[in-house]
Design a protein that fits this description.
The chain is mostly beta strands and about 500 residues long. It has helices spanning about 1-10, 25-30, 80-95, 105-115, 155-165, 190-195, 210, 360-365; strands spanning about 60-65, 65-75, 120-135, 135-150, 170-175, 180-185, 200-210, 215-235, 240-265, 265-275, 300-315, 320-335, 335-340, 345-350, 375, 380-385, 385-395, 400-410, 420-430, 435-445, 445-450, 455-460, 465-470, 485-495. Strand 9 (about 240-265) and strand 10 (about 265-275) form a beta hairpin. Helix 1 (about 1-10) crosses helix 3 (about 80-95) and helix 4 runs antiparallel to helix 5. It has a 20-stranded antiparallel beta sheet that branches. A four-stranded antiparallel beta sheet has the order 6-5-7-14. It is built from eight helices and 24 strands.
Length: about 500
């Protein structure tokens, strides 16, 4: 029930830690995926692996459900602050009332998140299925829910979003005591009692939004994809030199997209967010707006497609070399589509977001009377968050495997993309036939030095498998860890 509530939160609240291993919990623990994934876990990673001979003899079918992976990461925040953020998100999933917003905590939040790159990701596998035949090759299908958030804001934008009308951006504050309304100077000496009577903040000289937000970058995307892939051996001599190829495709239904960039070229923002997020756009016209539904699945805002291409080589049944290009395609949004106007900014009358909950900032930006002034669009097309992968693995003996992986973005500006190349090293040890221990290292992207760790339990020669993993187990023990994550799977069956 808690898992369902947590998933429900992702579907109903406003919040790129782009996972490079997806929901494949057996590979999350070593940080290396491209040369290791099998069955439906290959979709979106390396479909040529569908043609590889199964590790467990006689098991042609694999099916699974209820696999998820969650992560929060930042190169500027420590593990304690990230756990606070995770706790805030989890409490929202449990529908617990947030703590009261107070002046002191708002100040602390501004200091914590100013100019920090923060990334959040959640993946859920509703259902996966694969089949392998010696002559046919391998085919797989799955339904995957994915949600990713990435934000890096300048100090002014952070201060404004977290402290709202009390922001140091403003020169003066309007305060109300009973029936008496007055304006006071905004300075660092304002008391918490006075702050409670502020109804708005004002600038004596208005500035453009593009100037206020310069250096801010926020991306969010929530997709549900229906994936299919096929892989098989192309040519080569068994156990000596074998070449495999794979192809994959997906239908993408997108419930939400938010893409904001403010730089030397100005301010650009496009959004298409399902009514489930409960954002009040006011009377903005020009968009194919969608009314909120009280029941059922969240309405789809856009549809699109993605294509995967991959190839791999196996030498002497010991060495695997794999490369893939994934998610080539786009999504076109035709409902609730808005873009921003670069207007003058002079005043603000909304309170700051609650404590660590940085994911509320989208609502703070685009709601009626929010920071941004929007105008409707008929449609908007977003290129997918495509990536390139290259990995190598080596299996010196049957129960020991090791490898490395490199994952790079095609265009980090696309919502959901990893921000920079991520590299990883890791492997498995199988001390007994029912237990797989995984450990690794990865860095790059927005990561510093992460050490993944995983346990996978294998029952009846691979007939049943479950496990748990983390992308950085050290963060649970070290004060200076830069990520908090977990992956879990408990319903994978082979026959």
């Amino acid at each position: 029930m808690k898992l369902k509530l947590f998933l429900l939160f992702l579907l109903t609240s406003s919040f790129s830690f782009s996972q490079t291993q997806g929901v494949a919990f057996p590979t999350v623990g070593k940080g290396v995926a491209t040369p290791f994934v099998t069955d439906y876990h290959t979709l979106g990673i390396n479909t040529s692996a569908l043609g590889w001979r199964p590790r467990y003899a006689g098991k042609k079918f694999t099916t699974g459900t209820s696999e998820f992976a969650f992560g929060v990461s930042s190169d500027s925040l420590n593990s304690k602050k990230l756990r606070n953020l995770t706790s805030t998100l989890y409490n929202a999933a449990q529908h617990k009332n947030p703590d009261e917003i107070d002046y002191k905590r708002q100040m602390e939040s501004v200091g914590d998140y100013a100019e920090a790159g923060v990334a959040i990701n959640f993946d859920y596998n509703w259902l996966g299925f694969s089949y392998y035949g010696e002559k046919f090759g391998g085919i797989a299908f799955n339904i995957r829910e994915s949600y990713s958030w990435y934000s890096k804001m300048n100090q002014k934008t952070t201060d404004l979003l977290f402290r709202g009308k009390l922001s140091s951006v403003f020169d003066s504050l309007t305060v109300v005591y009973g029936s008496d309304t007055s304006r006071i100077a905004n300075n660092a000496t304002i008391s918490e009692d006075s702050a409670g009577h502020v109804i708005s903040g004002s600038l004596n000289v208005p500035i453009r939004l593009s100037e206020l937000t310069k250096g801010t970058h926020i991306q969010m995307v929530w997709n549900r994809s229906y994936n299919i892939g096929y892989g098989r051996k192309l040519f080569g001599r068994d156990s000596v030199f074998e070449v495999y190829g794979g192809v994959g495709a997906r239908l993408i239904t997108s419930m939400a997209m938010f893409n904001m960039t403010s730089d030397d070229d100005g301010l650009r923002l496009y959004s298409a967010i399902t009514p489930t997020f409960d954002i009040d756009y006011g009377n903005v016209s020009g968009s194919n707006s969608v009314p909120k539904k009280n029941k059922g699945l969240a309405p789809v805002m856009g549809t699109g497609y993605g294509i995967d291409l991959s190839a791999s080589v196996i030498l002497f049944n010991k060495l695997k070399i794999a490369a893939a290009v994934n998610n080539i395609g786009s999504v076109t949004y035709k409902r609730n589509v808005y873009k921003v106007k670069d207007t003058l900014f002079a005043s603000f009358n909304i309170g700051g977001v609650n404590s660590e909950n940085i994911t509320q900032t989208v609502n703070q930006l685009v709601r009626e009377n929010g920071l941004m002034t929007l105008e409707g669009e008929q449609k908007y097309t977003v290129i997918n968050a495509s990536d390139f992968r290259f990995g190598v693995s080596f299996e010196p003996i049957k129960y020991v495997r090791m490898g490395f992986d490199v994952v790079a973005p095609f265009n980090k500006e696309n919502p959901g993309s990893i921000q920079n190349p991520v590299y990883s090293f890791g492997g498995d040890i199988i001390p007994v036939k029912w237990l797989q221990l995984s450990i690794g290292y990865f860095g790059g992207g927005i990561y510093k030095h992460n050490m993944p760790l995983g346990l996978t339990f294998i029952i009846k020669d691979g007939a049943y498998e479950f496990g748990v993993a983390s992308r950085d187990a050290l963060s649970f023990f070290l004060k200076n860890g830069t990520s908090v994550s977990a992956a879990l799977g408990f319903a994978r069956v082979r026959f």
